[in-house]
Design brief:
Radius of gyration: 22 Å
Low-confidence stretches: none
Distance between the termini: 15 Å
Number of strands: 21
Helix content: 25-40%
Mean pLDDT: 93
Shape: globular
Strand content: 15-25%
Largest sheet: 9 strands, mixed
Number of domains: 2
Oligomer: single chain
Length: 428
C-alpha cells in the first residue's frame, strides 16, 4: 500500500534570511502576476525565484538560483531524513480553526494500482511547465495535499505525541494562516508512522498536476536507464491530513466564461428550461446561494444588477443530461451539473474547450470584478463540494471535473523541499 518515507529536507537558513514569513509564497498555480511582483519586491530571497522566476529561461534560472543559494548558505540541507509534523491555524467565517498533519515523501505509483486515488482531471499545460522545471532543477519544490482515513486514530496519536515543544519552523502567510513545522527524526517514531501509513489508501486533495508530473518524470528517467527502487525521484513530497479532520475546509471554485456566443437574454431563456431563474440584488446573491446549499443551486452574473439565482426545477430529469456511464454519486455533484447543464448545454462550451474558454476564481468579489472589468463575459457561482463526496468518487476511481475542490488553506511553498537528483536515495 502507501510507501511513505522521511527525507533530508532542504530549507531556508533563518540566520541568513530573517523572517521566514517574508520568503514563503502561495503554490505556483495560485500566484497571479500581481502576487509574483509583490513577492519579488518583498524579499530578495523569496521562494518565488525558484517556483516562478522572472526570466526568459525560467527553468535554468531556477536551477542556477537554487544551486547558488545552497552554496551561499541561504538554503541548508539536513543531514538526516525526517518527517515534519505540520499544524496550520487560520480564521474562516469568524471561527479560529486548526488543521494538523505531517509532511513526508510518498512513492509515486500509477493510479491503477489503487494506492493513490485522484479525484479530478488535469490539463496538459501545467504538467508540461512543471516537468520542464523538474528536469532543469532536479528539485521537488512544492508539496501536494493528501487525505487519509485513520479511523482508529492511530496516526492522530503519533502526531500528538511529538507536538509539545516549540516548532522548528513557523511562518504566517498573507492570508493570516500560521504554518508550524516540527522536525521528527526519532527512528522509533518514524518506523511507527511508516507502518501506520502502509495500510492506507490515500486521496489527492490538491496537486493533481504535480503528482502526475512526478509520475511522468519517473517514467522518463526509467527510460534513460536503471533507477534504484529507493531513488528519491520515485517519491513525491506531500502533506498528509486526516479526511475527518475538523479543520479540513473546502471552498468553491467559481467559473468565468471568457466569451459567450449568445446574449444574456438568450442564456436566461435557455436556463429557464431547467431552472427557476430569480433576479436577486448583487449584494445578497452570495447569501441566497448559501441558503440553498442542500439543493442544486447556482448564481449566474452578467454584470452589475444582473445576478440571477438558479434553482433546479426537476433534478432527476436534469441528471439524465449527464453522461449515462456516470455514477449516481457523480450526478449529485454541483460542479458536474454546472458543467453539463449550464456551461455545455446552455452556453455550448464543450469539455474539450474548457481549458481555453473557462477561467477559475476562488473569491466572490474577485470573480465579480473580472466580469465588471470585461475580462470575462459571465460568472457562474456554486456551493462547495463536500469532503464525503470527494471520498466516494475517489473510491470509485471516478474523477470530477477540473477544479472541483479548493481546499483551504493552501499549503504554502518555501518551508521544506527535496533533492531528486539521480544519485539521491531515501532510507528503506
Amino acid at each position: 500500500m502507501a510507501d511513505v518515507r522521511p527525507f533530508p529536507a532542504i530549507h531556508y537558513n533563518l540566520t541568513k534570511i530573517g523572517d521566514l514569513s517574508k520568503v514563503i509564497t502561495q503554490p505556483y498555480d495560485k500566484v497571479t502576476p500581481e502576487m509574483r511582483e509583490r513577492y519579488l519586491k518583498q524579499h530578495q530571497f523569496s521562494f518565488i525565484n525558484l517556483i516562478l522566476p522572472k526570466s526568459e529561461d525560467p527553468y535554468t534560472t531556477s536551477a542556477n538560483t537554487c544551486n547558488r543559494w545552497l552554496a551561499e548558505g541561504i538554503l541548508v540541507r539536513e543531514t538526516k531524513p525526517a518527517f515534519y509534523i505540520l499544524e496550520e491555524e487560520f480564521d474562516i467565517e469568524g471561527r479560529r480553526m486548526r488543521r494538523k498533519g505531517f509532511i513526508g515523501a510518498i512513492r509515486v505509483e500509477e493510479f491503477e494500482k489503487g494506492t493513490v486515488l485522484p479525484h479530478e482531471f488535469t490539463h496538459s499545460g501545467p504538467k508540461a511547465d512543471r516537468l520542464a522545471l523538474l528536469r532543469a532543477t532536479k528539485k521537488d519544490y512544492e508539496q501536494i495535499f493528501f487525505l487519509y482515513p485513520d479511523p482508529k486514530g492511530e496516526i492522530d496519536r503519533l502526531l500528538d505525541s511529538k507536538k509539545g515543544a516549540e516548532p522548528d519552523l513557523t511562518a504566517t502567510d498573507e492570508f493570516g494562516v500560521v504554518h508550524r513545522l516540527w522536525q521528527i527524526n526519532d527512528q522509533n517514531w518514524i518506523t511507527a508512522l511508516r507502518q501506520a501509513m502502509q495500510g492506507q489508501v490515500v486521496l489527492i486533495a490538491d496537486g493533481h498536476h504535480r503528482y502526475e508530473t512526478a509520475l511522468n518524470y519517473r517514467r522518463e528517467m526509467e527510460q534513460k536507464g536503471n533507477v534504484p527502487a529507493s531513488a528519491a525521484l520515485r517519491f513525491k513530497t506531500a502533506a498528509f491530513f486526516k479526511i475527518t479532520d475538523p479543520g479540513l475546509v473546502i471552498l468553491p471554485t467559481h467559473r468565468l466564461l471568457k466569451t459567450i456566443t449568445i446574449t444574456p437574454d438568450e442564456a436566461l431563456s435557455r436556463l429557464n428550461r431547467l431552472f427557476e431563474v430569480r433576479l436577486v440584488p448583487d449584494e445578497s446573491a452570495k447569501s441566497e446561494l448559501e441558503k440553498h446549499k442542500s439543493e442544486h443551486a447556482f448564481v449566474a452574473y452578467f454584470g452589475k444588477g444582473k445576478s440571477y439565482l438558479l434553482l433546479m426545477r426537476d433534478p432527476e430529469t436534469a441528471k439524465t443530461l449527464l453522461p449515462a456511464e456516470k455514477s449516481p454519486e457523480y450526478k449529485e455533484l454541483d460542479v458536474a451539473l454546472l458543467h453539463a447543464l449550464i456551461i455545455d448545454n446552455v452556453f455550448g462550451i464543450k469539455p474539450a474547450e474548457t481549458e481555453n474558454r473557462v477561467l477559475y476564481e476562488r473569491y466572490w468579489q474577485d470573480t465579480v470584478a473580472r466580469v465588471d472589468s470585461g475580462a470575462a463575459a459571465c460568472a457562474l457561482f456554486l456551493n462547495p463540494t463536500r469532503p464525503e463526496q470527494v471520498q466516494k468518487l475517489a473510491e470509485k476511481m471516478e474523477r470530477m471535473p477540473q477544479k472541483s475542490t479548493d481546499f483551504f488553506p493552501k499549503l504554502i511553498s518555501g518551508m521544506v523541499f527535496m533533492d531528486v537528483a539521480e544519485t539521491e536515495v531515501l532510507p528503506d
